[in-house]
Amino acid sequence: MADDWRTMDIANPTEEHSMLRQMVRDFVRDEVENQALEHDRDEIFNAPLFRRLGEMGLLGITVPDEFGGGGMDATAVAIINEELSYSDPAFCLAYLAHDQLMVNNLAQNGSEEQKSKILPKVCSGEWIGCMAMSEPDYGTDVLGMQTRASLRDDGNWVINGRKMWITNGSLDEEGTPADIVWLYARTGTDERGRAEISTFLVERGTEGFSVGQKITDKLGMRASNTAELVFEDCVVPAENLVGEPGESMIHMMRNLELERLGLAAMALGISRRCLSAMNDYASERQAFGTEIRNFGQIQRHLGESWSEYRAMRSYVYDTARQIELAESGNRLDSDGVKLFGTTAAKNIADRAIQVMGGYGYVGEYVVERLWRDAKLLEIGGGTLEGHQKNIARDLSANSEAIEG
Ligand SMILES: Cc1cc2nc3c(=O)[nH]c(=O)nc-3n(C[C@H](O)[C@H](O)[C@H](O)COP(=O)(O)OP(=O)(O)OC[C@H]3O[C@@H](n4cnc5c(N)ncnc54)[C@H](O)[C@@H]3O)c2cc1C
User: Which of 131, 377, 383, 384 to mutate to test the pocket of ligand 1 (most atoms within 8 A of CB)?
Assistant: First the structure.
């Protein structure tokens, strides 16, 4: 027992975690790597490959077994995201939107009826889901959202508004909407004048729900679909309200930490791949009669990238270890790890391009795509500025966190 803490690998703390990592790593090598470049170039979401994740039991990794999920924890989420992002961060973003933004949210906050009806479908891959919070005019300022749901006399809700930037919002080029949307909408104003936000489950085929546009020409994450969703007099039955009206802040808080950890784990996968690519290249490439790794400036790129990668790995898995899926309470570190990891990943990808010179600048050598994908992580799921704001606020309320 005394030696456990010395021998434990924080990124693979149990046999089950190690086996999960190996399974995903094999899948990525055999089936994800070879399709990534093409899907990025064509801006196509690989839905058939996504459904393979369902066959492997990965869509709903944190969902209890009884609903068809994997019954695992936040560390498992980090492992899967890291491994998928090693080859294809955009494919991983589609996975994150489904598994962490929608499915885990339902598993933590839905009623027994909602869970029994929907979780088996989203865990198997029969249905692909998304989470719709952002709007054309409101992102960070989430409580400003304008999408409204009004309660009708017959007990049903009528929803009107537009949601923007929704990953998996559209499943294909024809504008087929996601099978199920975890939707946030304004249902009133509380006694302090703040927006009361409620959560709804909206199924494809519900009248008044459609895709406004698939957003194209993104810098990165091009193999994940991003869409605008439109709700026009969309009637949602009473049983599709999650919890009570006004409870969305609880849902958001419970899910937020896993979302941010998931994005930081994507940054880790990008960093590992870029470091590996630049390290190999630094030995293979000769200039002025010697390997370029003998040049001090190349050594600086390698040295800084290694230390940032190692720091990120520890911070990601230490945060994952502490996350309780059904509770909130660790925003300081879920914001902190995303703030540190995403910019570090972008910088490591940038250095990989630099070390690889002209080859680093073209798609075949992968790192330029990872550099483009890494930039999204500084915006989605909370901007860098949002994390800085949260950390400053949380440290003011909890300065003991600094002393440990
Ligand atoms: C590819 C992609 C996928 C996405 N997927 C989803 C999804 O699946 N579901 C979803 O709901 N959303 C999604 N988003 C939206 C994403 O979460 C938002 O883009 C993000 O929250 C920022 O919101 P915004 O774009 O409206 O920028 P804004 O919030 O308008 O921010 C603009 C700038 O102002 C800064 N700023 C804002 N407020 C403050 C403040 N108080 N202090 C300091 N600076 C501030 C921001 O940091 C930023 O630099 C996605 C976005 C992209 C690009």
Answer: 383
Q: What is the mean pLDDT of residues 366-379?
A: 98
Name residues whose C-beta falls within 8 Å of residue 266's C-beta, 6 or more positions apart in sequence: 81, 82, 84, 85, 89, 92, 93, 96, 345, 377
**Number of domains the chain contains:** 3
221 lines ligand 1 (CB under 6 A): yes
Question: Are 223 and 284 found together in one domain?
Answer: no
Share of the chain above pLDDT 70, in %: 99
Closest CA to 269 of 334, 316, 339: 316
Residue 176 is classified by DSSP as P
From 40, 128, 164, 165, give the residue whose CB has the most ligand 1 atoms within 8 Å, as the site to mutate. Answer: 165
Q: How confident is the model at residue 65 (pLDDT cuts 50, 70, 90)?
A: very high
Q: Distance (Å, rounded) from C-alpha 309 to C-alpha 344?
A: 8
Query: What's the gap in Å between 129 CA and the centre of ligand 1?
Result: 20
How would residue 39 be classed by pLDDT, with cut points 50, 70 and 90?
Answer: very high
Residue nearest atom 22 in ligand 1 by C-alpha distance:
139
In ligand 1, which atom is closest to the CA atom of 138? 26
Domain boundary among 75, 91, 124: 124
pLDDT confidence of residue 3: 66
Domain range for residue 366?
249-403
Where a domain ends, among 246, 261, 279? Answer: 246
275 shares its domain with 394: yes
**Any ligand 1 atom below 6 A from CB of 137:** no
Please tell me if the CB atom of residue 352 comes closer than 6 angstroms to any atom of ligand 1: no
**CA-CA-CA-CA dihedral for 345, 350, 351, 356, to nearest 10:** 130
Helix axes 367-376 and 89-96, enclosed angle (nearest 10): 30
Same-domain status, 133 and 69? no
Please state, as a whole number, how many other Cβ atoms lie within 10 Å of the Cβ of residue 237: 14
pLDDT at 204: 98
pLDDT higher than threshold 80 for residue 346? yes
Nearest to 103 by CA among 62, 50, 53: 62
**How far apart are the CA of 139 and the centre of ligand 1, in A?**
4
Of these residues, 83, 259, 368, 378, which one is catalytic?
A: 259
CATH number at 220 reads 2.40.110.10
Residue with tokens 């087929």: 176
